[in-house]
Design goal:
By secondary structure, the chain is mainly α. Helix content is about 70%, strand content about 0%.
């Protein structure tokens, strides 16, 4: 398994535990990182995924729910839900991972950890979300600006 795939696998397991048992993020990350033999760069990527996705779960879920209306988000399996969150965060929120790579990684992890229908479901939802990448990115950018108190006009405070 490639190093970034291993990082995504660790992030998936951590987010699964956080989602299911509501354990503290720091505690879960410490335990998962201790189980995996990851180099520093890969461990940092896994941690970025978890710390990036976790506080945005509700907002990510809102977009996911729009593309899977027949499946209320709380009825989507915990594995599928977190795979969707991770991929959406990677390709739409941070835009640091190419869309095709994020979707392919999510589908591969769905094959490994999900049900028989998980890869098709994950691929379909992410494909729909990918079509809205710029809209989603702008919405999360605006959300980040609001939470940090930055002005969305690009003006300097006090200007």
């Amino acid at each position: 398994m490639k190093s970034r795939t291993r990082a995504r696998s660790l992030a998936l397991q951590a987010l699964y535990e956080i989602d299911l048992a509501e354990h503290p993020v720091d505690e879960v990350l410490k335990a998962r990182l201790a189980e995996y033999a990851l180099d520093a760069k890969t461990a940092a990527f896994a941690e970025d995924l978890v710390r990036g996705v976790e506080p945005l779960r509700a907002a990510l879920d809102d977009y996911i729910a729009e593309l899977a209306p027949e499946w209320p988000i709380d009825q989507v399996s915990i594995i599928d839900r977190n795979l969707l969150r991770i991929a959406l965060w990677e390709f739409a929120v941070t835009k640091q991972t190419p869309v095709k790579v994020a979707i392919n990684e999510a589908v591969e992890l769905a094959k490994r950890y999900g049900s028989d229908s998980a890869p098709r479901f994950v691929n379909g939802v992410l494909g729909g979300l990918a079509e809205r990448i710029n809209e989603i990115h702008q919405a999360f950018k605006a959300l980040a600006e609001l939470s940090t108190g930055e002005l969305s006009t690009g003006e300097e405070p006090g200007a």
